[in-house]
Amino acid sequence: MTNPVVSALFPVVFLIAIGFIAGKARFIRAEATKDLSNLVFMVLAPALLFRTMSTVHVEQLNFKPVAMYFVAALLLFASLMAWQGLNRRAAVLALAATFSNTVMIGIPLVGLAYGQAGLVTLFTLVSVHSLVLLSIATLVLEMVSAREERLAGRGGARHMVLTVLSAMKAGIIHPVPLPIIIGLLFAQTGWVLPEVVDRPLHLLGSAFGPVALVLVGAMLTQVRVGAHLGSALGISLLKNMALPTLMAGLGLAFGMTGLPLTVMIVTAALPMGANVFLFAQRYEVAQALVTASMAVSTVLGLLTVSLVMALVDWLG
């Protein structure tokens, strides 16, 4: 009988490998990945997220594991800031060690491994994942940037409240959390999607996983790790192993069990999310290191996620 961890991970690895080969062979050119990314995030993901949440009632959602996930992430974020110091580089690298690729890798993996119930737990997190972590990262980065400017004698304090409010707005009006929220609101009405609408959404949602994973593989061909390998490996181990270990410890300490805890631990073990690079670009710090870390974290994730899933399966 096939091991359930292997059954869930093999399609993920296989599709990423296909994307990598297609990228190397230039079947998927670098300039085409942006269009594919838009297709995944603007069309396929909203269809899957809305359709899944359109049958879920709020009383079915369990927010305790989501809250515990953020406690674990923020503890690691704060620890890294304390270790590295109050500066932009430390803040970006702390975000890199705590921000998971919950959509492009997390949704296909959790769907394959834990089914519809696992996806509902994941989507509860996904609906606020970017909103919470990116808003906090924005606040910290704006504060340390203003501090660095004052120390450099340049003044020019930033309007942090407006910046954070803008980040929160962007975190809600976004193709990932917005369809989740709309789907939940629709579910509370008691209505059912008509077949003529549900069927196309099902087809689009079914395409999300394969296309997203192939795109991940294609994008890996565009990254150069080079001299940043050592540092990138350290950040990747924090992201892929330290965060799920912290999540597991906190969850067990507070009496969490079953599928919700499992999904949160596996989500914490996912590779680094792409939004971290956008922050590195915006604040002009550690861009090459973050790019290298994303590649290393994704490749390493094939091993570390397997290990975490096997351990969770064994403990459960």
UniProtKB/TrEMBL annotation:
Signal peptide: none
Superkingdom as given in the UniProt entry: Bacteria
GO cellular component, one term: membrane
Cell membrane recorded as keyword: yes
Membrane topology: Multi-pass membrane protein
TM segment ranges: 6-23, 35-54, 66-83, 90-114, 120-141, 162-187, 207-225, 237-255, 261-280, 292-312
An individual GO BP term: transmembrane transport
Compartmental location: Membrane
Keyword NAD found: no
Name of the protein described by the UniProt record: Auxin efflux carrier
Lineage of the species this protein comes from: Bacteria, Pseudomonadati, Pseudomonadota, Betaproteobacteria, Burkholderiales
